[in-house]
Every structure is written in structure tokens, then in C-alpha cells.
Amino acid sequence: xxxxxxxxxxxxxxxxxxxxxxxxxxxxxxxxxxxxxxxxxxxxxxxxxxxxxxxxxxxxxxxxxxxxxxxxxxxxxxxxxxxxxxxxxxxxxxxxxxxxxxxxxxxxxxxxxxxxxxxxxxxxxxxxxxxxxxxxxxxxxxxxxxxxxxxxxxxxxxxxxxxxxxxxxxxxxxxxxxxxxxxxxxxxxxxxxxxxxxxxxxxxxxxxxxxxxxxxxxxxxxxxxxxxxxxxxxxxxxxxxxxxxxxxxxxxxxxxxxxxxxxxxxxxxxxxxxxxxxxxxxxxxxxxxxxxxxxxxxxxxxxxxxxxxxxxxxxxxxxxxxxxxxxxxxxxxxxxxxxxxxxxxxxxxxxxxxxxxxxxxxxxxxxxxxxxxxxxxxxxxxxxxxxxxxxxxxxxxxxxxxxxxxxxxxxxxxxxxxxxxxxxxxxxxxxxxxxxxxxxxxxxxxxxxxxxxxxxxxxxxxxxxxxxxxxxxxxxxxxxxxxxxxxxxxxxxxxxxxxxxxxxxxxxxxxxxxxxxxxxxxxxxxxxxxxxxxxxxxxxxxxxxxxxxxxxxxxxxxxxxxxxxxxxxxxxxxxxxxxxxxxxxxxxxxxxxxxxxxxxxxxxxxxxxxxxxxxxxxxxxxxxxxxxxxxxxxxxxxxxxxxxxxxxxxxxxxxxxxxxxxxxxxxxxxxxxxxxxxxxxxxxxxxxxxxxxxxxxxxxxxxxxxxxxxxxxxxxxxxxxxxxxxxxxxxxxxxxxxxxxxxxxxxxxxxxxxxxxxxxxxxxxxxxxxxxxxxxxxxxxxxxxxxxxxxxxxxxxxxxxxxxxxxxxxxxxxxxxxxxxxxxxxxxxxxxxxxxxxxxxxxxxxxxxxxxxxxxxxxxxxxxxxxxxxxxxxxxxxxxxxxxxxxxxxxxxxxxxxxxxxxxxxxxxxxxxxxxxxxxxxxxxxxxxxxxxxxxxxxxxxxxxxxxxxxxxxxxxxxxxxxxxxxxxxxxxxxxxxxxxxxxxxxxxxxxxxxxxxxxxxxxxxxxxxxxxxxxxxxxxxxxxxxxxxxxxxxxxxxxxxxxxxxxxxxxxxxxxxxxxxxxxxxxxxxxxxxxxxxxxxxxxxxxxxxxxxxxxxxxxxxxxxxxxxxxxxxxxxxxxxxxxxxxxxxxxxxxxxxxxxxxxxxxxxxxxxxxxxxxxxxxxxxxxxxxxxxxxxxxxxxxxxxxxxxxxxxxxxxxxxxxxxxxxxxxxxxxxxxxxxxxxxxxxxxxxxxxxxxxxxxxxxxxxxxxxxxxxxxxxxxxxxxxxxxxxxxxxxxxxxxxxxxxxxxxxxxxxxxxxxxxxxxxxxxxxxxxxxxxxxxxxxxxxxxxxxxxxxxxxxxxxxxxxxxxxxxxxxxxxxxxxxxxxxxxxxxxxxxxxxxxxxxxxxxxxxxxxxxxxxxxxxxxxxxxxxxxxxxxxxxxxxxxxxxxxxxxxxxxxxxxxxxxxxxxxxxxxxxxxxxxxxxxxxxxxxxxxxxxxxxxxxxxxxxxxxxxxxxxxxxxxxxxxxxxxxxxxxxxxxxxxxxxxxxxxxxxx
Length: 1537
Fold this sequence. Notes:
A hairpin with a 2-residue loop joins strand 23 (750-751) and strand 24. Residues 404-442 and 694-855 have low confidence and may be disordered. The protein is α+β, with helices and mostly antiparallel strands. The termini are far apart. The chain is globular. Helix 2 crosses helix 7 (191-214) and helix 3 packs across helix 8. The strands form eleven sheets. Strands 29, 30, 31, 32, 37, 38, 39, 40, 41 and 42 form a ten-stranded mixed β-sheet that branches. Strands 27, 28, 33, 34, 35, 36, 43 and 44 form an eight-stranded mixed β-sheet that branches. Strands 13, 14, 15, 16, 17, 18 and 19 form a seven-stranded mixed β-sheet that branches.
């Protein structure tokens, strides 16, 4: 051993001194920056969490960050650590295994980081914080994992430095990711901002590394005797990876520069773009914020003076129409590409030459221009991964792009060829004369295909394809600057495109008064017409409120012929003195004319004259109709002076010829079919004129079609269905027709790939008014069979085509519809070339000698083989049997148990013994109990404000714990949100999906808690709640496993609280279970189970159960103030009874003393909190949810439906309820009001979503809406949270400084858990004396034990059965029919609404004096509500108003608002008898109830109905404007005289 080795040995077991190389420190930071820049660039390109490209970007970003920015930086930085004097024997040696592990570990963690952050463009701060923590953890973890790979040193760490390094890593990572994603979400993510984020992210890596390195000491274990120089090897790997990253960054910069230059070139060309909008109006863009576009051609070649490419040009008209009928050219795209590939190219740039050598446009220029447009549209469809038919329709305007300078290269190929031929002078002259002049030199033209996406899955698919959706205001600046769009209001243009794409700019059916104003164009042959600004297909019109014009109305209009507006007004005034119907029509015409003149706001309208000839204009079809409809328009016409401009801000001028095209290009127009035939006859011969050579790959770049010919093309015939060859043969049609050039007045009768269909095409071309194209026919050369070999399979298809009389050919044929039949035989040849190769393999068989084996060994081997054979079948059988046993095991399903007590029986004397139910105190007794509380001995333990689900639940929970409780409600029990739910008792499958995808544990807890409460619902109130199977239709097969896994997970979470397991239905079974479903796009369905209930009846039952247990329960009593003691603590409240004021009497205030005040007022929570503290912050964020009620025939009676992905991504339910169908809900911010009105927009949205999955045979009409309501969901914010703006996921229990307990939030399903948490908090805060409940009332009315509740002072509401639940059974209605003689439907309704209290309700029904039914007079002939329910509600449920009966006791107002109005007189009469109402009170009840029914969707005309009109049945509003909206059936036709 040398002296130097002896010297180094002294370091063994000791700390080796270290220093740092500053140059390598800088290099390590640069390496980290390179990796961070590449990472953020890759993340910036990610557009969705779906799609293969997005997965690759995600993995690449994780590898770039973990492998380059962290791993490479670590080993580069470690190379900068100098130990001792940098002797080779003291250099660090790494373990290859740990080094590899330290590479992949951070990659995996970062992969989880980027998945957690997500690809959404909405900034989620908690996701960013989680991502920052994970990223910082991966940085720190890799550092210490990398240090573990050191073989010859033990690392000694300083805890302070370790903590500081971790903090730096997490903090800087969070800041960097936050900057990046905030910039990205706001579309301000320019390259230098990404670079700043990358520098900060690299600072997190380097800062953590060097802080940790400074606090790390190295204790030598052994010398590096072999000098493995492992540091150098790792450094080389790191350098290689860094160089690769630099290469990718440089390539990205070069690519962006090339794209920028390409965009500048495109701005000087004619370009076709696509603008796709989603439901919320966001626009599809690339990750750079640009719209997808394709070049059509360099420039439009003008052939005459003024031949400018604009919206008045016939070529634009052709494009406008073909975009509405893409199917007419879809089959010719390949032929067009082939034809363009064989056109002459320029000698230098290889572009298609559109100018011949003589300076004139090439032959078939118009057709070639059309082909270029179609090919560009097909290229855009490929970019979007769409079919050509779905790429969109052409917008009705052209945007100018580029600059105004002269082009540097107009067409270099043209200049070259003219100079070579010596015709430069001719070329220059034509250029100066404007033959080739563009309307503005250097200006390009940008056209747009627009499309509106209805479904969220289309948005997700396009995002997965690499596109983003952004708000228009965020990207309009980027689009305008980078695409060089020269318009002042690009945002307005894009917004107009979005409106245009929706296709809503169509006139409504009926009669309209329109303004038809034209003027001659300046400097051109043509006319301009006045249209509505932004909707160029509509004239300025005003509707006349009539459906159609009668003959007598036409006679009146003829009197207005050629009269100006002033004369028309004068004559209309005269008509007002005639018969009533003429007076009505004159008034309608007068109003429409005056409104039209005011709308146009231009004095030139007064000079217009009316024409007596009415016109039919396309209009919006009725809901569910696919055929085109027309409406009637009476026109005011005027020829304006040529100098007039559109002074009205609502109008603009457009070319008249384009307006004509616009009128023919509406949806389902019969003109489009003729246009399709015309397009096929025009383009097919030209597209097929080139030799057929199927290209291997096709793409369009810089205005030229580039083809990659496949030298082994014959192999591509194998398995390809798109390259079939067709020969057309017939008696009168030759196989090949030579190309010829004829005049525009003669059309080709035959073509190799077309057959003349009818003579309508030529007429259609004349109507278009465009230049007729020369006749061009192309010969089709079938592919030669020589040299292909293989097997030929021929299939002969015979098609009989009737030849129709063609005047253009001047055939002398009889006037029959069919004169002769030509048999056209199409022979499809499919070539199959099979190459069969045989591979021979020599088999060498070696003979082996057989040796004898012992008998025991032989038996063991045989036994082992036998066990192996039966192991797999036995395992499968065991697993399958266990699964079957678990699925079909005996279970006590909640809600299906028998009655808790036996049914009533006959006594010994033969009389029927009805149950003797305990009576609730009268309302006067309850008020007296409240007044007693003013004394200290009678003080309440708890006063609950609010009688909704939460307030009633708190009262029931508290009173069953032995507390003295009172609950007061300003209106009625369940008068607010609690009666306006979706009627579901569910855990929430949508919450479960969010919990899984967002990794949200709070959402998971919410679902778990709700599923547990769902079971208690069905146990404690089986008569009011039931199980409901809900169907989830599937339109794609790949969705089946996804939703199947989701529903099975939902079943698993339910556990013992569940019912039957979810199951799959085939398409036929799904249609059998839900016949109303749309059959198209249906592959099957999944069915899962949830609960449904009668929400307001449930609420009333909870309150009445609390009253029976001793709680003081009072409705229509308002809390006007809160009382505080000397210490500022709440000690009571001032309560005002509102019923005396309704009777015209004065109400005395009631002082209620209580130890605890609980605020359970739902949306009105803040109003009570402000009574306690005026300065408190509001915590309620109200959201409105609209529901509609449809007739029962919209859904099966025992199957609901859920649409998990509506057009805007929300969930909508479609459920049977009380014999009708409920659909909803929406979720929009709103203002708090007692009875919010449902807005028409939300109703129409629900109906539109419903129509998407119902059969087209079912017309979803507005008139089918029987009722509609808006409920306010009180979403709450925690006032004590640090972030007071964030909403509470579940519910909130808050106690103020003065002692006000607030319980808010949550949902109906979890009302019991909310009440339990609230009472627990109150008992703990105020030391309330809970105690066992002795002498509990026999709620069942029998001497038997009511339920399993042990009232020992703890919460037992999960066992306390509600009023009516004890004696209820599924067959109780039969006993009711047999004893009282009520109708079957009525008996079922009574038992399912009142449970065993149906005995009392039936006894209160008056006899009918009929044989059957013997009792029960219906209050509405459409529904099973009877008179006994009104009397029972008054005496046993504290009903005080007619609204209480209609809305919360019988639910009639929620089921049918018009039926509720019709039975209102009978209800007021019965209540007047029971409650002794006078005439004034009855009239007030009528007005208040009608006003309430407006919030239930009562039609506007019925709000003014009087009681006398309703009683006489004279509610007729068929003459009103709302008839068509609210009528449930078509208007009867008028009999002709």
C-alpha cells in the first residue's frame, strides 16, 4: 500500500471535508431549467385527461420533470461536490439498482401529481396545492433516494437543513405550478411567462438540492480502490438526456417559427376555418389559441372587371349550399383529390397552376375552385376527427385578413411561364386591366364553417383530440393578431358565429308583417336588400297574433294594395268602426305596423307600399317535427334610392342574390335535394376524369395537394373496402365517354360515374342565377387486371332505373311517367391476392431410454396431475357459487317489512274496532302552551325556528330525548324548499362519480352517509317512501363497463342499506321496460335502485310525530325578534300568530322563553341571524332548481331514468311520481323569495333534454307541462372557516357568540343526521337535561309495542316510526276498500299518503249515496284526492289555508296547477264550514291561492279567473296567444261551410 493510500485511509470512518465547483452548480441549474421548460411545454399541450396523445404528453411531462429536471440535476449537482482534494479513491460510487430506482420513483410520483392537478382549464387551488406538495415530495424524495445509492459513503443529515430543503421544494413547486396554471387558464400563457414558471420550478429543484447538500456530511466507508468513476457515468447519462431535451425544445421553437410564417402566408390567401361552439358559447381552439384552418388557394383569379370574391359571388353561394348538404360531395372527395393531383404544377413551388400560359384561368376553373373548397373542408374534418357531414355549415360572411401591401409573389409560376413565352406585355396589360386583380392587394379572405355542439361527450371527444374550449373574450385577441384578421369587432363576429351555429335565427310560425326594401348596388349590376343585423336570412318583421290568414282577412289586405304606410294607418282607423272581428284584425295590423316602423327606426319606411300578395317564408318547425314549415308574410315593399345607407342600428344591406340563396338553404329544404343532384352531375365527371391511382397518403399543404404514391399499391387491396372499382354498363350507356367541351346551354346526358336522374337539375341551375358551366365529361379508366393475379370474386347487382322525360334532350316520348326501363348492371370486383408461404422446420427426435420409476413416485405424479386438472374448475365453481349465494341471500329489505302492529279486527259484538290513535293538541292549545313559557318554570329547553324538514327533524330528535321543545313556522310545514325537491331519497351517483374522479373524500363521506339515511327513511316511513329502479341508458358499448362499475360500487357502498343489486338490460329489454326511449343510438341500459318519497307529506308527518310526543308545534307563526338577557345571551323570542290577521283581527305578540334557540330556516337563515347580529356576514348562497311535471304517459309507472351527461354536463332525472312524471332539475344562482317563479328558459331546457332521449314519435310540448316550480337550495358557507367563500359540502351547525344555533345546508335525505348533529351540539353547548322518555304515547293506536326505539335520552330517531307507519302494509288498501267502500285508486292513495291514519281519513269522508263508491267524493276528477283529506288536515295536521291543502297535504298544486284552480272553490267551501270563515276571508283565500298557483306554473290567462268563472267551467283561453303554449292538445279544426 502506497503512502498516499495510507494517507487516505485516515478518512475511513471519518467525515470527509467537502467543497463545491461553482461551474457545475450553474450547469446543474441549467439542466434543471431545461427539464422544467420541456415539462411545462408538454403540460401546456395537454388538453384533456382522455385521448392517447394526452396520455403520452402526461407521461412525457412526468419523465421530463422527474428524469431530467430532478434526476439529471441531482447527479450533475453531486458531480460538483469535491471531497477532500478530489482524489479518485475518494470519489462517490453509486449503486446501479438504487440509481435506476431513483429515476423511476419521481416519475411515478409526478405522474400522480399531474393526474391530481388534472387537465381542466378552471384553476382548482386545492388541486394545485396537492400537486405542489406531491411535486415537492418527489423532488425531496429523489434527492434522498439518490443519496441512498452511494456505496462508499454514509450520509449524515442535519434536520434543520432537511426541513428547510423540503419547504423550499414544496413552496417553490406550488408557486411555479400555480403561476403556470393561472396563466394557462386565463390564456395569458405566453412563452416568457412559461419560462418564468419553469425558472421557479427549476429553483425548487436546485434550491432543495443545494440546501440539502450544504446540510449533508459524508462519512467514508471504504476507498474506491478500482476507481469505477461511477459519477462520470451518471454524468454522461444526465448529459445525454439533457441534450435530448434541448433538441426537443429547439425543435419546438423551430416548429413554432414555421407555424408563424405559415400563418402569415395564410393571411394573404383564401382560407377556410372552422369555429366550433359548445353549449355555453365557448369556442374550440388549438392549444395556442388559434382556430383550425386550411388553405383553399393562393388567390381568386378575377376574370372580368369587378369580379370580386365576396358573399355575392356565385362560388360563395355554391359553397354556402354545399355546406348544408355535405353528403352530396362526400363520396367524391377521393376523386377530387386524385383530380387535383393530376393538374399542372408550377415548375418552382409545385403548386397547382390556376392560370394558363395565355394568362387566362385554366379550363374548369370554377369546378376546380369548388374542389379545393371541398378538399379543404375534408381536411378540417380529419383534423377534428369528424365525418365531413359533421364539420359544420358555412358562415354567411367573409373576413378580410393580411395587410394592404402588394404581394411579393402573386403567382411566380405564372410570371415564369409568361416570360418564357415572351408574353409579359400581354400579362402586364391584363394585370393592369384588372383581369387578375384582387379587390385589395395583399388581403386574404377567411371563411368559416361553424358548428354548435349539443352534447358534453362531443366536447370531451374534441378535447381528447388535442383541442381546447375557451371563452370568446379570452382568445379573440389571440385569434385576431395571429391570424391577422382585419376587423374592428372580432368578438362580435365570433359571437355572431355562435348564434348562427345554433340555427335559432328562424321565424316562428304564424303571420308576420315584413319590410322588403331593395336598392341598386353602386358600381355593379345587382341589388342589395335590407335584413336584420346579425341574422342575414331574416327580413325586418313583426308578428301578427294570428295563426293563419282567413279569406275575409285577405279581402281586407287587398284593400291595402299599393298603399303607403300613412294611407294604411288611415284605412285601419276606418276599419275599427266595422264588425268586431274586423276591428280585432285592424287593431292587430295597426299594432304590428306601428311596431315594425318603430323597430326599423328609419323614415324611409313611411314610403313603402303594401302588396296584397302574401308570401310563404321558411319558419321554425314544431317540436318533434322534422319536416320544413312555412309561415305567412305580408310585405311592405320599396325601391330605395341608390345613395341610401342603413341608418338603423338594427338593419344592414346584403346582396339580394345571396339573400335568395339563404332562403333556399334552410334545414330540410326541398331545394337542397335538387342541389345535391346538381352538384353530383356537375363535379362527378370532372373529379373522375383523372386516371384512378389510389394514393397511399393524402394531405393538403400550402394550397397544393401532395400525394405519396404507394409502389406496392396492389397490396393495399387486401382488406380495403374503400377502393372498390365499379363499372357501369347498360343498354344505352357506354362504358367510356371521351372528354368533350361544349357550350353552357347543353348538359351531358351520360357520364362514366353518373346517371341522369331528372330534368329538375337544369331548372335548379337557372334559378340559382349563376354562370352555367361548360359540359365536361370524363372517361373512367378501370384498373387493369393484368399482373394482379389472385382470385376474382364478382357480384352482380341489378338496379332498375326509370328513364324520365327530359325536355332538354327533345326526346319524342309518350306522356307517361315511365317510358322505358334501362337495366344498369354494376359489377363489383373485389381482388384478393393471397401470398402463402410455407416454413419447414426440421424435427430432430432423440430416442430416450425409459427408466423404471418407483410406484409411489408414479402415484404422486398422477395425483398432482389430477389435482391440477380439477383446481381451476373447482375455483371457478366456488367463486361463482359464492357470488350467487351472496346475490340471492335472504335479506330483510327496508320498506318491505310487515306492519309493526296487527290490523284492526271485529269485536265480540260483531262491530269493527278502529284503531284509537292519540290526538294531537288543537292549534289553540299549542298557542296556550307557548304563552305559558313566559314563566321560568315553563321555559322551553329548545325553541326551533322553521318547520321544514330540518326544523321538524330537530324537534322530533329533541323531544324524544326528553327535552321540552317548541317549533314555530312562519308559513306552513314544508312550505319552502322541503316541498320542492326531486322527490328522491338517494345517496347520489353523481356525487360518487365526483368523489372517485376528484379523489374527494368529503364527497365520498356524503354518499356513504346518505345511503345509510336512505335505509332509515324506508324503515321509519314505509308508507311515504319506496324503492325506485332508475334506468341509465347507454348509447355506446364502451360506456357499459364504466357505468356498470359505478353502479356496482354504489351497491357496494350501500351494503346492508341497499336493496336489489344493479343489473344490465339489453336493448330489447330496456325498450320493454321503458317503451318511451329513443330506439336509435341505444345499445342497452343499466338499472340501479334508489328511494323516492312524498316530500311535504313526509315533512308534515315528522312535525305531527313530534307533536304527539309532546312538542309544541305551531305553523303560521312568525318570529319577529329575539330576546337577550343581561349577559347578551339569547333567552327567547317574540312570536306573532298570523292567522288572526287573515281573519281581520288583531294578533297579540307571544313571548317564548327558551334556553336554546335553533335557526332552521333554510334559505332564510341569514334573516334570523341578522335578528341576532345585524353585522353578521351572510352565509347562504341560494341556488334555484326548477322541476316540471309531465303526464304519466311520459314514463313507466315503476321505472325512473337518469341522464348523467346532458348538453351542458349536468344531471337530469325523469321519474314517475304520484301518477305523473317529474323532470328536473336545474341549478342556477338566484335571489331569495318566498314563492320563486320558474323561469321559461329553465323549463325549455328541461323539455329539450327530455326530448333527446325519448322516441321521436313522442312530441315533447310545452302544453304537456302540468305544473312547474322553482325551489331554492340553501348552499352555505362556514362563517368560521378561513376561506369564508368556500361552500360547505354537507351541512353546517354553527353557534354564535350569543348562543344562536344555526343548522343549514345538507339535503332531504340527510335531514335526520343533520338534526342529530344539531341537537348534539345544543345539548353540549347549553347543558340541556336529556332524560329517558317515560310513558311514551302509543302512536299506533294499539296496546302493542310501537317500534324498536328505546327512548333513553339518546338519539333514537333512526328507530322512531312516524305517524302512519306502524299499521301500514302493502295490502292495507284492501281492508280500506272492504270496510269503507272507497275506490281502489283512492284507497291506494290514502294508505300510501297517510299509512294507518287512512282509517281516520276514510271515516271523515262523507257518504256518496251510491252503491260504489260508498264514501269519498273526489275534489278533482283527475286525481284520487277526496273530501275527507281536507277535514283530516284541518283537525289533525294544522292546515289553515287553502294553499296548505293544495300544496302540502294533497300535492294537487304540484301535480296539476290548472286542476288545483278548478277544485279551489270546493276546498274553500269545506274549509269555511270547518274553520267558520266569513266572506272576506274566503275572498282573500281565493286571491292568495291563485297568486301561489302562479309559482306552480299556472298559465298567465288563468291568473285573472274569478271564482264564478271556475265554478261555471268557463275557463276558455283558446283565443289568447298562450293557447298553443299551454294547450295539451291540438285545436279542433274548423268545419267548412
